[in-house]
Write a structure and sequence with these properties.
single chain; alpha+beta; two-stranded antiparallel sheet; about 40% strand
């Protein structure tokens, strides 16, 4: 399954409501990610990676304090080893997926 398919299902059925000031936000934060971790691991984008959901946008990795980075997820990105995931967002108009976490990638 593709991550976009999962996010479309989650947000379309209203399972997560992040309405702020009357504007819908399509974002999964740590509390949501933990509930859907098993489903996320079934997605092609997270195969062959150790997925760790983090509660804060910083993590200690190999004795180094690392801040989360935000990237637009595309088909060319392949994660290496461990992905510390803080949030996933689906843009309401163009359907781009934004991932916020600490990671190493192969391009």
């Amino acid at each position: 399954m593709k991550l976009k398919e999962l996010l479309d299902k989650v947000f379309e059925n209203g399972a997560i409501n992040n309405t702020i000031d009357g504007t819908e936000r399509y974002t999964m934060f740590p509390e949501h990610l933990k509930l859907y971790k098993d489903k996320l691991l079934e997605c092609d984008e997270f195969k062959n990676v150790d997925l760790v959901i983090i509660d804060k946008p910083v993590v200690t990795y190999r004795n180094i304090l690392a801040e989360c980075q935000t990237i637009k997820l595309d088909n060319d990105i392949k994660f290496k080893e461990i992905l510390y995931l803080y949030s996933l967002s689906l843009h309401a108009i163009n359907k781009n997926i934004m991932l916020r976490g600490v990671f190493a990638i192969d391009k």
